[in-house]
Design a protein that fits this description.
Blueprint: H1 40-44
Amino acid sequence: ADLEGADLRGADLSFAHLTYANLKGANLCGANLTSAKVTEEQLVYAKTNRSTIMPTGRKGFW
């Protein structure tokens, strides 16, 4: 999915499968990413201020 620049502030993305999503410039401030499948590399280019990010336990994923 191409979510580049998307405004996802406060979105509930818990358990979302974002492994191959383009999150460059996406606004995830305040979003719930608990157990979402997303890599650390993807989040480097997104705005994640006050987001809830929990590890899934899988190597390479948050």
